[in-house]
Structures are given as structure tokens and as C-alpha cells.
Design a protein that fits this description.
Blueprint lengths: L1 H20 L16 E2 L6 E2 L7 E4 L2 H5 L4 H6 L5 E3 L7 E4 L2 E2 L3 E5 L2 E2 L21 E8 L3 H4 L6 E7 L11 E11 L4 E11 L3 E12 L2 E2 L16 E6 L2 E6 L5 E2 L4 E15 L2 E12 L2 E2 L1 H4 L2 E2 L2 E2 L1 E6 L3 E11 L8 E19 L4 E22 L2 E22 L5 E2 L10 E15 L4 E17 L12 E19 L3 E12 L3 H5 L2 E4 L2 E3 L8 E14 L2 E13 L2 E5 L7 E4 L2 E10 L2 E14 L4 E15 L5 E3 L7 E9 L3 E10 L2 E2 L18 E2 L2 E12 L3 E8 L19 E9 L1
Parallel strand pairs: 7-10, 34-39
Antiparallel strand pairs: 1-2, 3-9, 4-5, 5-6, 7-8, 9-10, 11-12, 11-49, 12-13, 13-18, 14-17, 15-16, 18-19, 19-24, 20-23, 21-22, 23-25, 24-25, 25-26, 26-27, 27-28, 27-29, 29-30, 30-31, 31-32, 32-35, 33-34, 35-36, 36-40, 37-39, 38-39, 40-41, 41-42, 41-43, 43-44, 44-47, 45-46, 47-48, 48-49
Length: 735
């Protein structure tokens, strides 16, 4: 099926190019030149034409802020695949790498902490998209600048900064936004207030949202008429769980949640070259149902009566100092100090069982980074140092919901004092060899230390009571960017990445699914990636096309596979005899693929654009057996046509995923085969329409009709189906 989509897309792009090239030169002023595009992939502003690595930026304010959540911002870009285990949660996938192998950051502060898991990570839910200014996606290993975890790429989310007054008068401005969506019963509101003086400015933002049970599409693949239906509802009467018929099987009961987010930034800029920012971000959700686990059945009965994440909490306090045009060796300086408090929990109760299990995790993270840039002639030298310290506390208990009796159960992670720290120094060099040719090279030294203590080993009878590791890793990159006439760039880059095993890898105990349990493995080593990428971008007249091909060698890859615990290949966990699995370093793996994009200006007002991505991956275990690598998305992309005018714009766009055949699933990994059909995850296509209207300078509205044909589909590895036909309305008032 992906070949069919690829052929159609290729034909479409070819046709668009031919049409556009036939246009008159009168529209050439609409072209965005390479050297007019500024990105922050190197932490300092840099012209895209000088960077060898592939980078994309989502900067359209409506595409960023008028979405249900940050995960959908990435998903609807057509450039990033996103897995979903629940409504609101999203796990970005870049070139076959996901979760702890992707570095997430907000305002230059890394979000990845010591318990970021290698499975499907839903923490993007804590990032409020309504306060984002832009999102930068860096493809390929980025460990030179970003450290451990950036094996496949990085997603840098940048929030809005306060705005100073252009005069000596204090200026007050702001906005209020309301959003509603029918398929999710989304009701969301955001208020922002900016107070700007000549040297001081403050930005305050508050977002509150409520999401109901999501309704999935009704038009299913004819071969799977029951796929995705929620046929039962679990209720409790007289201390007894009852599974009753769901009157609307398309309503995914127990998928709704609530959330609020607060942003407060205070800026002090004594002059144009110095800036201080205090950055406070608070995110808190209600209980968030783990919908995929709530759909599991055994012998015709639900497995779980309750399975939900407790309130997801992310509190961040950061201080940012930026200095430009300094007299001395370094002309530019950035200092970021930050503290994060993260809380998450998992609450589960089996169907018709009075025992309710609570597992809580708290993580305190302290971070400091210093970056400086020196420019001399055709050379730019960027050096930096960073340190992150993680302190983890994991607790657990079981409660009888009838009697109130409490008892001990295994914690998710080591239950004693547990810490992880990362310290690094790095350098990135840019040399403009000629007017057209630029060299990028860099190196990083990273030292990680982990100390996990098991205070109580009586419940699981661990053969060890602590895990202590220390790893020194060196990574680097070298690349060439060749720019011609400010319209064409060819990039070639070779880079390496690494990821040190974290607390989640080394000390986790959890059931991936009923009848399977993952146990700690104290013998893990870091995993490494070695990547080669060739990319190009070309702008000619009204046509912009780009693409990349890449190959990544993955060594000592951490793979979940069968294991023995105290000599046993199965143990009892939560009362169920479960096959034993553990995270292990497999011999090697590889990932390769390509991506393509095109944008065509047919007229000054009419544009067509499209994206497509194909990825494939395999790993070979220590016995020489080759199997599909998990986290590899199917062929996917997006095609759209957009009409713009002075006060409005309208677009029609299609999104698609190809087949993910069951033979391409990793049976032991994180592909969630149990949530697919017997043949895998079917291909799908949705048609969508959007209309935006500016009503004067103060009012703006967006009306979208998504999944017009009410298709039933779900993203690969996801345990919740996507929304069916959905009407969304957003209204914004600025002042």
C-alpha cells in the first residue's frame, strides 16, 4: 500500500512542479530564501543555509496554537509520526526513534529525565501549545549539542517571550482564546496578558481544558467491521464490578480528562544586548485514563476495572541570561539554570478485584547550561557545558477498596535513594570555506552516573540490592552544507549519538501487557547510533522542494526480550503467571529511510504542498536472528492546498498512513501488536478542511471539519482510535 501512496504522491509533486515552473516570473518575490530562514538548532540563531543537518520549523501561529494539544501540532505537520496510548498523550517518533531516544526540550531546557521510558512516552501532554511560539524538529543524532537521548533527533519547543514596549510608555496587550471540538467534546480556554515597559516586561498565560470521551470514526475497513469498537462499560454497584453494553460502541468511554497550565515570564533588558528572563511553567492534569489497557479482555471479560495515570504534574522554574556583542573572545553568551519537579502515578485495579494498586514517582531535576559563541572571520566556534542532576523517589501500596486495608507491593523503580547525573562539555564549529561551502563539525564528552538502591528485596527477591553505573561517552559530527545562489542547499553529514541506560531501563518492574512482566537488568551498557544523511533544499521561482535520505547504524541497542529471573522464565506478578522480559543490549540494528517535501505557489494566493516519510528498521540479536525493529512507523505524509487572501485563508488537506503489516511488527517490543488487527494496522486516509477569518485587527476565528468521511483508523502502535468526523471552532480576541 505504501508504494501506491508513494506513486500517487510522486505523480502529484511532479505535476505541481510542472505547473509551477510554467508560471511567470512575477511570483518570484514570494520565495523564501535560504539565508532568510533562521533556526536555533545550534542554540544560537543560525541561517538554515549554513547547517548540514535537516531541520524543520513549525512557526505558523495558528498551526501551533489552535490545536487540541502539542502532540497534534507535531502530528498535523505531516513531518512527525506520533503514537497515542490515550487521549491527549502523544509519543513523537523521528526516523524510527521514540520516547527516551528522542530529546524533548522546552525553551532550551531538557525534559528527558531519569525515568523517561523507552516505550511510548505520553509526557508531551504537559506542554501547553497555546503558549508556544514555534517548534523546531532536528532530524538525526543530535547528541553533540543535546547529550544523551538524542539518538534519532530532537524536538525543541519554544514558548512566547514577553514583549517590551517600543516607547517609554507601559503598554498592556493580550488575548483570549476559546476552542471547541465535537468528537472529543473539547472545551478549552486560554488567557494571556503582556505588560511591557521599555526595560521590563511580563507575560502571564493561563489555559484550562476539558476533554470528554472521544468518538471514533464509524466507517471501518470492510475486512474489520468490529475493529476499535468499545463494546463494554465497567461500572461498580454494591461493591461489585459490572461489565455492561456500551450503547454507542464508537464512543471510547473512559478516555476524557481535564488539564490546566500556567506560564509566567518576567523579562529585564537593561540594554539591547543583555536580557534576563525568569521562566515559570506549571502543568497539572486530572486523572488520565490509560485507555488502551482499559480495552483489554480475557475470557470475554475486561482485564481491568481501573487503569489511569494520576495527576500528571510538571513544575519548571528557569532563569535565562542572554548577552550579545560582548567585548572579549566570546561575543555571545547564554546561561540557563533550571529546576523541575515532576510527579506521575499509575493506579490499577483488576476487574472484580477489590485490590487497588498505587505506584507513585517523583523526580526533582536541577540543571545548568552555559553556551558561548566566538566569531572570527569565516569561523564560528560554539562551546558549552551542562549538568543535570536527577533525584528519584518511587513508592507503592495496595489498598482494599472495601476494607481500606493497606499492604506492600513492588515499586515501579528502585525504592531506595536513587540518583542520576549527567555532566558534559562540547564544542561546535562552523567554517565558511567559500561563499557556497560551509563546514559543520563538533565533539562532545559526556559523563553519566547512576546509583539506584533497592531497599526492600523481599517482594521480588532481586539477586542484587543496588545498581551503580558510570559511563563516559564521546560523540561527534562532521558535515558539509553547499548553498548555491541562496536558493539551493545540499547537505551531507555524518554524526553519532548515544544514550546512557537510565533508571527506567535498569530498575523498572512493570507488566507490558497481562501475562508479561519486565524485570531489572543491572548489566546494561549505553546504546550508540552512527548516522549518514544526504539532504537537499531547492527554491526556484514558485517551487520549493526538499528531501533527505538517511542510514543509521544502531549498536548495543536496548531491546526488550525474553529473560530469566532467578533462573525462572516466568513468575507471578500481580497474581498472574507472567513471562519474564528484560531490557537487553542486542548486537546491532539499522534504520534507513527517506523524506520528501514540496511547496508550489500556483498563484500569489494559491499554494499546494506535500510531505512524505518512509522508514525501515531491523535488528539482529546475539544469536544472529534478524527481526523487525520496533518503533518503525509506516509510510506517512500529508498533502494540502491553501488559498490565502487579505483577511482569510482556507485549506483542504489529506493525511495518510500506509499499511503496517503484522510481519513488520516486533513481537517482543513496543509495537502493541495486541491493539492491531490480525494482519497489522490498516492503511488510512482522511480528508480535512479548514477556514480562518480575521475580523478586523482584534478578532480571529478558525473553523475546521476534520475526517470528513468519518473514517475509522488508529495510528500504528496506538491503543486508542483517532477521532471520527470532527467539527472544531476556535475564536481569539486580541487587545
Amino acid at each position: 500500500m505504501h508504494k501506491k501512496y508513494a506513486s500517487l504522491l510522486l505523480v502529484g509533486i511532479t505535476a505541481m512542479c510542472n505547473i509551477a515552473l510554467a508560471q511567470k516570473k512575477e511570483h518570484q518575490d514570494t520565495v523564501t530564501k535560504l539565508n532568510n530562514i533562521v533556526v536555533y538548532a545550534n542554540k544560537f540563531p543560525e541561517k538554515a543555509g549554513k547547517i548540514a543537518q535537516t531541520i524543520s520549523v513549525i512557526r505558523d501561529q495558528n498551526a501551533v496554537q489552535l490545536q487540541p494539544n502539542t502532540g497534534d501540532v507535531l502530528l498535523n505537520s505531516g513531518q512527525v509520526f506520533v503514537q497515542k496510548s490515550q487521549q491527549g498523550g502523544s509519543s513523537p517518533v523521528i526516523r524510527g526513534f521514540e520516547a527516551s531516544r528522542i530529546l524533548l526540550s522546552v525553551d532550551g531546557i531538557r525534559l528527558n529525565n531519569a525515568i523517561y521510558r523507552a516505550g511510548h512516552l505520553q509526557n508531551v501532554i504537559t506542554i501547553d501549545n497555546m503558549v508556544l511560539d514555534r517548534v523546531e524538529i532536528i532530524y538525526g543524532p543530535s547528541s553533540t549539542l543535546y547529550g544523551s537521548d538524542a539518538l534519532g533527533g530532537a524536538v525543541n519547543m519554544i514558548t512566547k517571550d514577553p514583549v517590551l514596549s517600543a516607547s517609554k510608555k507601559t503598554v498592556v496587550s493580550g488575548s483570549s482564546t476559546l476552542r471547541y471540538a465535537s468528537a472529543t467534546d473539547e472545551q478549552r480556554a486560554n488567557v494571556q496578558l503582556n505588560i511591557g515597559g521599555s526595560k521590563w516586561a511580563s507575560l502571564t498565560a493561563f489555559t484550562a481544558g476539558s476533554f470528554g470521551d472521544m468518538t471514533q470514526g464509524n466507517n471501518r475497513n470492510s475486512a474489520y467491521p468490529e475493529f476499535g469498537k468499545k463494546n463494554f462499560i465497567v461500572t461498580r454497584e454494591n461493591n461489585t464490578d459490572i461489565a455492561s453494553v456500551n450503547p454507542n460502541p464508537n464512543k471510547q468511554v473512559a478516555s476524557g480528562y481535564k488539564q490546566y497550565d500556567i506560564l509566567q515570564k518576567i523579562m529585564f533588558s537593561p540594554d539591547k544586548n543583555n536580557k534576563h528572563i525568569l521562566n515559570i511553567q506549571l502543568s497539572n492534569s486530572s486523572d488520565v485514563p490509560r485507555y488502551d489497557r482499559l480495552t483489554e479482555t480475557a475470557s470475554g471479560k475486561p482485564v481491568y476495572a481501573e487503569w489511569y495515570y494520576g495527576p500528571q504534574v510538571r513544575n519548571l522554574i528557569g532563569y535565562h541570561y542572554t548577552a550579545n556583542h560582548i567585548n572579549g573572545f566570546f561575543q555571545d553568551l547564554k546561561i540557563t539554570a533550571n529546576y523541575q519537579n515532576i510527579e506521575e502515578s499509575r493506579i490499577t485495579r483488576k476487574f472484580q478485584n477489590n485490590s487497588k494498586d498505587f505506584r507513585w514517582e517523583k523526580v526533582n531535576v536541577f540543571g545548568l547550561s552555559i553556551d558561548a559563541k566566538h566569531t572570527s572571520g569565516n569561523h564560528e566556534l560554539h562551546v558549552g557545558a551542562e549538568s543535570y542532576q536527577n533525584f528519584i523517589r518511587s513508592t507503592a501500596e495496595r489498598k482494599n477498596i472495601v476494607t481500606g486495608a493497606l499492604s506492600a507491593i513492588t515499586t515501579r523503580y528502585a525504592d531506595g535513594p536513587t540518583t542520576m547525573q549527567s555532566n558534559a562539555i562540547y564544542a561546535q564549529h562552523t567554517y565558511k570555506i567559500s561563499k557556497q561551502l560551509t563546514l559543520n563539525d563538533g565533539i562532545r564528552l559526556n559523563l553519566t552516573k547512576l546509583d539506584a538502591r533497592f531497599a526492600d528485596t523481599t517482594l521480588m527477591h532481586f539477586p542484587f540490592n543496588k545498581v551503580v553505573q558510570q559511563h563516559l561517552a564521546a560523540t561527534g559530527n562532521i558535515g558539509l552544507a553547499y548553498a548555491v545562489d541562496n536558493t539551493t542547499k545540499i547537505g551531507l553529514i555524518v554524526s553519532s549519538g548515544f544514550r546512557a541506560p537510565n533508571v527506567d531501563d535498569l530498575s523498572k518492574v512493570f507488566d507490558t501487557k497481562t501475562g508479561s512482566v519486565v524485570v531489572p537488568n543491572a548489566q546494561l551498557k549505553p546504546e550508540y547510533t552512527y548516522n549518514t544523511e544526504l539532504n537537499f533544499t531547492h527554491t526556484s521561482g514558485n517551487v520549493t522542494v526538499g528531501g533527505a535520505i538517511f542510514y543509521t547504524l544502531f549498536k548495543q541497542a536496548l531491546i526488550v526480550d525474553r529473560y530469566t529471573f532467578n533462573g525462572q522464565d516466568s513468575i507471578f506478578y500481580s497474581g498472574v503467571k507472567s513471562a519474564v522480559y528484560a531490557t537487553q543490549n542486542k548486537a546491532k540494528a539499522y534504520v534507513f529511510g527517506w523524506s520528501a517535501n514540496a511547496a508550489i505557489k500556483l498563484t500569489k494566493q494559491l499554494q499546494i504542498d506535500g510531505t512524505a516519510t518512509y522508514t525501515k528498521g531491523k535488528y539482529t540479536d546475539q544469536k544472529g536472528v534478524q527481526m523487525p525493529l520496533d518503533h518503525i512507523p509506516p509510510f506517512f505524509g500529508k498533502v494540502s492546498i491553501k488559498q490565502t487572501a487579505a483577511s482569510w485563508n482556507a485549506s483542504i488537506f489529506g493525511q495518510f498512513n500506509g499499511w503496517k503489516k503484522i510481519a513488520d511488527y516486533n513481537p517482543n517490543g513496543e509495537d502493541n501488536q495486541q491493539y492491531a488487527t490480525p494482519e497489522g494496522m490498516p492503511s488510512w486516509f482522511t480528508l480535512n478542511a479548514k477556514f480562518e477569518l480575521n475580523m478586523g485587527k482584534a478578532w480571529q476565528t478558525q473553523i475546521s471539519l476534520e475526517n470528513i468521511f468519518d473514517a475509522n483508523y488508529r495510528y500504528f502502535a496506538s491503543g486508542i482510535s483517532a477521532p471520527g468526523r470532527n467539527l472544531s471552532i476556535a475564536l481569539r480576541k486580541t487587545f
